[in-house]
Amino acid sequence: MPKQPEGPAIAGGDEHRLYRKVVYRIIPFIFVCYVLNYIDRVNVSFAKLQFQSDLQLSDASYGLGVGLFYVGYILFEVPSNLVLQKIGARKTITRIMCLWGLTSMAMAFVSSPQQFYLARVLLGAAEAGFFPGVILYLTLWFPDRMRGRIMSFFVLAIAVSGMVGGPTSGVIMQHLDGFLGFRNWQWLFLIEGMLPVAMGIAAFFVLNDRPRDANWLSAHQKDWLIANLSVERRIDGRSGVQAFWLALRKPMLWIATFSYFSVTWAGMILNFWAPTIIRRAGVTNLLHIGLLSAVPYTVGAVGMLALCYSSDRRLERHWHFFASVFSAGCAAIAIGYASGDPALSIACLSVLAIGYLSAVALFWTIPTSFLSEAESAGCIAFISSAGQIGSLIAPVLFGYVSDRTGNLTFGACLVAFVLFAGGCAILSLKPSTRRGEQSR
Predict the structure, then answer these.
(1) What's the pLDDT at 373?
(2) Helices 373-387 and 240-247 sit at what angle, rounded to 10 degrees?
(3) How far apart, in whole angstroms, are the C-alpha atoms of residue 48 and residue 230?
(4) Which residues of the chain register pLDDT less than 50?
(5) What are phi and psi of 392, to 5 degrees?
(6) Cβ partners under 8 Å of residue 275, min gap 6
(7) Whole-prediction pTM value?
(8) Rounded Cα–Cα distance for residues 393 and 409 (Å)
(9) Helix 318-336 vs helix 409-439: crossing angle, to nearest 10
């Protein structure tokens, strides 16, 4: 049984209704924001089907452009989250969304590989801090025992972005080529870059930084939420910057970072190569590719919700995470051997999606359990940014190997090896975390 908070009493049924109220107020809005975030990050995989020839990009050059996104992302991730800790989530999210929307729209006007590379770096810098900022934001509202489900609701946006973004991108690519003199991939960037700007402005008025700032909660409800969080939160009087630098000495932080690094390799295949995998399996119609690309995300969403529910019910994270990355690794290997079979390729991508989405959601319940509030801002951003080095390296290696071998098999096996290593790393954290809890 979870320990009840000291402070204002609240009945079990009232607690359920209170958290449901908080969920309905916060989650749908940031859910939509993250859907737009992911669409703008990965719509390049659909644009590639046409602009690869327009910009004279090889698979290796495309992989480099995909990876360069993470240069800007990695450089600005930690500073963005430390700023969020000082000025709050709503100002930070407003700034991030407006900048990334405008940058995404600007990608419609690239005309050379060099401009494509530069635009990807700038887009990464604009988006930096959004994901870890939301992770930090959720820890300020929900206790640890709820975070598996809450994170699954948030990460569900990745799946929805695939369900919505794939067919939408397919329609745009299929029907808007030449409209008003623009190519179809230019319309893709223009249309899908407009909404984040509008949502970013709305974030300033919809979000509240902490429970105490929420005018839609009563004073009693605010006090109870704050008291509930304080039960599990370790007191830490250090500044965010000081706590972050000292936390870098913790081996468990680096082990967790490597595990997240491994997860991004699975995301690289699903998010940036799925349309290419489907086309190489024999599907040529752009609209059909867009529709079929939604299937793995749909299956992945169902599997993720089931695994995260199981993790919360058992209050177990590490083995659930390992099962997720192991299944994703096996699916990656199978994808390498499924070329030419559309049904088998979709099935493999679906298993990969279950493993990847579940791993992302479950992972973030682990470091937040051993970090103090002061450490969380910098360390969550550090894990996210350093882990995204995988997103920088993986597409370059995958594209290079694809060019050299003419197939995806060797690259897929490399992805699987990294995933298996990341899963074993998380299992090694389990006894360390327990010892840390016993020593406190």
Answers:
(1) 66
(2) 60
(3) 48
(4) 1-9, 232, 235, 432-440
(5) -80, -40
(6) 45, 46, 48, 49, 166, 289, 290, 293
(7) 0.66
(8) 17
(9) 180
